[in-house]
Each structure stands twice: as structure tokens, then as C-alpha cells.
Design brief:
By secondary structure, the protein is mainly β. It has no helices and 10 strands. The model has no long low-confidence stretch (mean pLDDT 90).
Length: 111
């Protein structure tokens, strides 16, 4: 058997909170449900679906700020890490607006 390869990922970054849907392209992926796993660094992705032997989607797990290799395991073999094609960068999550006030004002604005 031949180990899978990763030739690209999109997008190449996402929030440290996880939850980014990432498309992984390469070769040697297994389309049987559960037969292919994807790890972002040392942490497995929570959802993995491979529509073809050359394309999978995975949901990124939470992670620390920085760059990790996206590794694919299929048929018991893990992809090698040829940077930068397989690298995903964790970035800070976007800010959350908790309150905006006042909730109304004049239509002409304030000068």
C-alpha cells in the first residue's frame, strides 16, 4: 500500500476555537466512511468526509496559536509532511460584540 499525500488545503487558516471546514486535496485517500482520518498537528479532526480518493473535508479541532501540519491517515498509513502544502495556521477568534448602545439615535447622525 502507498501512503496518502497532501498537496494542498483550503483555507490555510482558522480560529483557535476550531470549527473551520477545510478541504484537503492529495492522493491515496479512502472514501469508505471512517477509513481516513485527519489530524491538525496532534489533534484529530472532529468530522472527516472523503468524497473521492483525492479530496476530503475535515472540521478543524481547537488549537493553540501557530502553524501545524495537516496529516491524513488512510489504510493505516500516514501522509508525510511536505511544508507548506499541508500547513494550517491557527489565528485568534474574531471579536464578539456583547453590547451596542444606545440602540437608536437620530437619522441625521451626530455631528
Amino acid at each position: 500500500a502507498v501512503a496518502p499525500t497532501v498537496t494542498g488545503i483550503s483555507p490555510t487558516s482558522g480560529s483557535t476555537a476550531g470549527g473551520t471546514s477545510v478541504t484537503i486535496t492529495g492522493t491515496g485517500f479512502n472514501t469508505t466512511a471512517g477509513a481516513t482520518s485527519v489530524a491538525f498537528g496532534a489533534t484529530n479532526a472532529s468530522i472527516v468526509a472523503c468524497s473521492t480518493t483525492t479530496s476530503c473535508t475535515a472540521t478543524s479541532p481547537s488549537g493553540a496559536l501557530g502553524t501545524v501540519d495537516v496529516l491524513v491517515t488512510a489504510n493505516g498509513l500516514q501522509s508525510a509532511a511536505p511544508p507548506p502544502a499541508d500547513q494550517f495556521t491557527y489565528v485568534p477568534p474574531p471579536p464578539v460584540v456583547g453590547f451596542v448602545g444606545p440602540s437608536s439615535g437620530p437619522t441625521a447622525g451626530v455631528s
